């Protein structure tokens, strides 16, 4: 019985069912924001909400039961994440003064989609591992922003738009340029007073937009390659173990055949 439950837990069917349930739950939360539809089908929403909550309890129970020891379930950070979300959203807060908090916490159930899909979990793990390198790039990027903001507020402080009147507004203007939101208008305004100012804007876009964005992509690709290499090593290790077991079985079978032959020769 436990073996069948364990096989079901690790099957794609279980993962797909959980994914569908979470998507349905996300759809329900979306429909609840539509006033007329929400009030019209309020009873249906409540019933569906109870059914989905029961499924989440059943899912957590299956995961706990299929562990060798109950405490093994809590050794995985994603299992702890699932457990906390399910427990919090089951708290009877709807009829209390914390009803707004309860409705907000329900949104976090959608995050369980990361743990329901192994592929999404792997991608998220990869992004978490990339955070230290990303932080270094963000610090370097902030230094570039800082330098350009000071230069911009010094050179273009008298422009009528007021986009460079102080350091903080200059930082926001540079962020606008980085997102390519009307950056040409900002540049042309400066060029009307300082024709050479295009050098400032073009150099900032090349450094901040092109170079740094490519660095972010390079880090993510590097982490993806590491993940693929790790999976390949794991597969090779499993194949090696399987081959080792097959060789042991062949050796044992060879030994038994030899023993049978020796017994026959002794009988003769």
Explain how this protein is built.
- It contains twelve helices and no strands.
- It has 268 residues and is an all-alpha fold.
- The model has no long low-confidence stretch (mean pLDDT 77).
Keywords:
single chain, 268 residues, mainly alpha, Four Helix Bundle (Hemerythrin (Met), subunit A), Helix Hairpins, 2 domains, 12 helices, flat
Secondary-structure blueprint of this entry?
Blueprint: H1 2-9, H2 12-32, H3 35-40, H4 42-65, H5 70-73, H6 77-90, H7 99-107, H8 113-116, H9 118-155, H10 167-178, H11 183-193, H12 198-267
Helix pairs in contact: 2-4, 4-6, 9-10, 9-12
Question: What can be said about this structure in brief?
Answer:
With 268 residues, the protein is mostly helical.
Main pleated-sheet profile: none
CATH class of the largest domain: Mainly Alpha
Shape: flat
Order of helices and strands: HHHHHHHHHHHH
Q: Mean pLDDT, nearest integer? A: 77
Residue fraction in strands? under 5%
Q: What would you call the structural class?
A: mainly alpha
Can you give the helix content as a percent range? over 70%
- CATH architecture group name of the largest domain: Orthogonal Bundle
N-to-C terminal Cα separation, in Å?
50 Å
Number of strands: 0
Structural domain count: 2
Task: Give me the CATH fold name of the largest domain.
Answer: Helix Hairpins
Uncertain residue ranges:
none
**Number of helices, where a helix is a run of at least 4 consecutive DSSP H or I residues:** 12
What's the Cα radius of gyration? 30 Å
């Amino acid at each position: 019985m436990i073996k069948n439950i364990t096989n079901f837990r690790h099957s794609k069917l279980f993962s797909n069912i959980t994914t569908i349930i979470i998507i349905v739950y996300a759809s329900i939360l979306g429909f609840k924001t539509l006033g007329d539809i929400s009030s019209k089908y309020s009873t249906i929403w409540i019933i569906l909400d109870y059914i989905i909550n029961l499924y989440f309890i059943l899912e957590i129970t299956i995961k706990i039961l299929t562990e060798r020891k109950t405490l093994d379930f809590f050794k995985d950070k994603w299992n702890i994440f699932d457990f906390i979300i399910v427990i919090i959203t089951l708290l009877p807060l709807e009829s209390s003064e914390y009803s707004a908090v309860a409705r907000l916490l329900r949104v976090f159930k959608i995050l369980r989609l990361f743990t329901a899909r192994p592929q999404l979990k792997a991608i998220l793990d990869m992004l978490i591992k990339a955070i230290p390198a990303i932080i270094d790039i963000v610090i370097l990027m902030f230094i570039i922003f800082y330098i350009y903001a000071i230069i911009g507020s010094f050179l273009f402080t008298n422009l009528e738009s007021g986009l460079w009147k102080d350091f903080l507004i200059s930082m926001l203007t540079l962020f606008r340029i980085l997102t390519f939101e009307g950056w040409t208008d900002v540049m042309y305004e400066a060029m009307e007073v300082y024709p050479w100012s295009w050098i400032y804007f073009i150099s900032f876009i090349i450094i901040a937009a092109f170079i740094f964005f490519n660095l972010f992509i390079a880090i993510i690709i590097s982490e993806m390659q590491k993940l693929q290499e790790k999976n390949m090593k794991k597969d090779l290790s499993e194949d090696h173990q399987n081959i080792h077991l097959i060789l042991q079985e062949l050796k044992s079978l060879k030994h038994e055949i030899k023993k049978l032959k020796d017994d026959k020769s002794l009988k003769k």
